[in-house]
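Forum: Protein Structure Q&A
Topic: Joint prediction for protein chains with partners

I've read a bunch of threads here and the consensus seems to be that you should model interacting components together rather than docking separate models afterwards. I'd like to see that in practice. Below is the full input, 572 residues plus whatever partners are listed. Could one of the regulars post the assembled result?
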Amino acid sequence: MRTDLEMVISSEADGWVARGDEFVASGASWDELEENLRQSLAASERYSAGTRVSVWMGCDARMIPEWMRPYMCHYFNRVVHLQI
Amino acid sequence: MADEKVLRKWYSGMFSSEDWWAVWLGLAMVVFGLASLVGVDLVGWVAIPVKWAEPAKGLKLSGAAYQGIHPLVGLAANYLIFTALVTLGAWAMKWNVKKFFLGWTVIFTITWICWFAGHNVHLAAMENEMGSFGISWSLNMGDGASYLLALAVGLFIGNVTKGLAAFLKDAAKPEWFIKTAIVYLGVKLGVKCMSAAGFAIDLALAGAAATVVAYMLFWPISYLIARKAFKMSRDWAACLASGVSICGISAAVATGGAIRARTFIPVVVSILVVVCTIFMIVGLPPIFTGTLMDEPMVAGSAVGMTVKTDGGDAATGAILDDMMRSKASQEGTKWEEGWILTAAVMTKIWIDIFIGIWAFLLALLWVYKVEKKPGQARVPLSEIWFRFPKFVLGYLIAWFTYVAVSCISPDAIAAAKIGAGPVQHGMRHLFFMLTFVSIGVITNFRKLKGIGKPAIVYVIMQFLIIPPLALLIAWIFHHGMMPPVVGG
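Posted by a regular:
Agreed with the consensus. Here's the joint model:
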């Protein structure tokens, strides 16, 4: 499945961070992260206003503690669509 | 993007995850075992303890072709061969190979000491064997003595000798060991199907049906209790419900990921799962043996729905299988070894298989009903594959390979059993034993300190709600099923 952008999600003390393809966005909640990312994409001029950008987000497995990874080494992947 | 840390392709993690390495280790030995079809025994070197009154008679090699080798030489060869294989896996998974090797050597040694000691006739001999050993008393524990000894030693290390526990933690891999053992169990099931295919199919179907009902019943009840009775948030209630009602850590993490919960939630649930599992391993077998001798397969399936980790489930199932067969044997009935264990493991495998589907459905539910973003978020179908327990593939391949042998060439069955024996007996028991020691080493009861309300909710559901429901569901789908009798 092709998307416009691919980002890796990590979990930090005060929220989530998405990094990929020169963009970094963070947020205490998913709504906040996605809004911050949308604003970053809009400010970058790579996408024109009104464009619907698909973003593949995959979790860095290292946010699952090492002792738990033998049980499940995958948190989630998600595709979100952001309207610029 | 570092692909090895993010699962992107269907083959991601194929050589870097314990799940897949259980498949490689397991199937490697299955392939070697199949060499017996052409008259070559590549697995008979596996060493096993036998019940002994004199230590010098307590060790033997599995295959007839290897009887000329001194057992201690064989045991040394076992260490070298298994060490090479697991160290290869450790290297591929980018662990600290030196620390793993040293820890593995100690765990292998402890495992063998417990395994050997547990076969002393005063611990293991059944009542009808005591005369032949010339003894007047025995605890009649069968294989259970070795398992419980290994667990006790592991728990002692994990909770008392902190330095040794820290030294061993890089090599104490209960999930890897038990998943490998389950692949070997697939060989056992394949061989059993050669003579009891109908029963095996009935067991598989009953396990699947019980699993579906368990999902439909356990999860909503657990979720509602957490939400309504204990006022927990949706994220906490969902992860707790999955952890306690489905499959422990893997379900808690899968659910946390599906609903995008903060990671500390499944971490706390996982701690509760690991610690409470020990009580299941120790408590369920004697309780079920004392109350369910008329319904042994019900007992096995109930274990599969009650115990929340693969290692714990197989460990509990193994002890239960041994205890129930021992008691039945004393009452004049000799059940074939492994069927009660298979009921426990098969139910658990179905539960594992459905985790990915369940998490996918939860993710959709959260997108459409909780987050209300139907047009803005999409849950890829690949999420089901990434959460699928890969070791189950090894189990199914091993199982169906031996079924195929018996279907395609019935004349080859005897030859196939020569290679299957050491794999499904010696290797399986060794990896079970490694699991028991490792579970004990990694279980630290002090981790429960400070968890608070989630611990109370979990304990109530795990010990008061789930077991009776599991028994009811197991009874509905398994009552009347009895293990085949030896020679029957």
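The CA atoms of residues 190 and 402 of chain B lie 5 Å apart.
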